Amino acid sequence: MIQIDALSKRYGGFTAVDNVTFNAEPGRVTGFLGPNGAGKSTTMRILVGLTDPSSGSAHLLGRHFSQLPNPGLEVGVLLDASAQHGGRTGREILTLAARTMGLPKTRVAETLERVSLTEEEAGRRVRNYSLGMRQRLGIATALIGDPEVLILDEPANGLDPAGIRWMRDLLRGFADDGGTVLLSSHLLHEIEVIADDIVVIGNGRIVAQGTKQELLAGGGTYARTSDLTALGRALQRAGHTAEITSEGAVLSNAELAAVGQIAFDAGLALTELRAADGAGLEEMFLQLTASTQRDHLESPEGLDSSKGKAA
Amino acid sequence: MTTTTIAPEPASPAGHQQEAAHRRTRAVPSPIPFGRIAGIELRKMFDTRSGFWLMASLVVLSLAASAATIIFVDADNLDYEGFASAWGIPMSVILPMIAVLAVTSEWSARSALTTFTLVPGRGSVIAAKAVVTALVGVAAIVVAALVGALGYLGVATVMDLDPVWNLSFAELARVTLASEIGMFMGFMLGMLFRSSPAAIVAYFVYALVLPTVSSALASTNTWWAENATWFDLNWATMNLYSEMTDKAWAQLGVASLIWLVVPMLVGLRLVLKSEVK
User: Fold this and answer.
1) Do A148 and B21 touch (CB under 8 A)?
2) Which terminal Cβ of chain A has fewer Cβ within 10 Å, N or C?
3) What is the dihedral of CA B61, B63, B66, B71, to 10 degrees?
4) Distance from CA of A67 to the nearest CA of B (A)
5) Higher pLDDT, B76 or B200
6) Interior CA angle at A120 toward A114 and A126, to 5°?
7) Are A68 and A58 in contact (CB under 8 A)?
8) How far apart are the C-alpha atoms of A3 and A24, rounded to whole Å?
9) Which residues in chain A are closer than 8 Å to B39, comparing Cβ atoms?
10) Could you read off the pLDDT of A35-53 as tens digits, one per residue?
């Protein structure tokens, strides 16, 4: 259980984290999604006590991180897989973690096996590791204490598709056993694949949160035609919303059949008509990453003024 | 393309529930004992390539210094003290480096991210590093004294000399203190800069450049020539290698306060409060 309550972090005039509130529940994988520099890492660093917040609070298992007597046994943390001394071997890094937590030596070999690092790889110095291997070692460090909570910052970075699937299964199993997982990513796809709940952050603020189903469903209808503006205007006249997406399609809240009928009535030939599952989330995310790349169709008047851009 | 096999259904779904319940009701772990943290920090000093080579170079340079003593010093003047000071030169350079890296490697390699998430009490980690640094300093002197004694005895036997054991325990203790001051200057600079190159450069400025500047100042300014020992830790420390008067102890205390204790408190505050990225 992770509780983040009205958390803010300011650096001079710059607000890196702005009034962020969310919970990560036991038994679920919570995805923390946002473009680079959105405040994900800062929030996670505050969560584990490496950065002091300007205001607000963060609790793990009902306590502040610094009140955990032996945090490795309760909270597994991976903030940056590259943040290790390159002169140590993978096994040595894991041994140091195990000894700090007071775990038996046998756990090191067990955990190495759990993250699929071979004996030979574990004996190599971390300087010579690929990013994927470092991620596995970092996940091993987080898992070795058999914690109740996992906090992973961009853990899928550098993993190949098979590695991402492996991690999904691992985190799924962890959550099914009653554990809490918070993982961040700047890639929508990774979060879609792994998370149950999604928190989207942009410019330090939470812009959307909910279950994956909630956020991915209700995307409305996607339609393509030669004259997007005409279709958009026709939909808005009929009382529906209509936006022209960056991909050159119209996104509307109208039903599939309604869009088809309106296009037919307007004499427009549709080249594509489909339900826009997840399009809302995707569009929102694109807007966060590049807010200038999208045209809005807010009203018929707005349509006229943006006609040049839309066409 | 990879495929995953579908695992057979668990025999009793209730088992899963119990497992989940077990996770929720487990006991609160006991705090990490300080001795364990100190043990980890000691291990971290020497389990990297740089740590290993620092130790190795300490041994190699010390042996080379001993050999040089045997070759270049007159057999008549070859006493134990001379032998011991030959060991002392490489140690006075390398021990502070060990102390610097004990602190700065956490930041330069960014392993502090892991260290401070496994032990959130940064004060405990720094205290453990300080204790271990002090112990390494003492151990290095003890080993050097013993190995030096064996070497000297060997040389004396081969050359058929009467061994001159002219290094008292008190002298050895003062040399140890001088060595510890050097190490903790390194430790302090490590905390102040939290970067290996910056702290190492700063140490050599302190140990090599400042004495020259101080001497130059003393040759032109009589007040400084008379009173510098109060303010110059290098000079105040040098007294430890000869006789210590009450005044010399007081001078050492004042100079240490200025150069070591005050900056150490500033560094400690930075380490405890600053963001770890």
Assistant:
1) no
2) C
3) -100
4) 8
5) B200
6) 85
7) no
8) 7
9) 99
10) 888 999 999 999 999 999 9
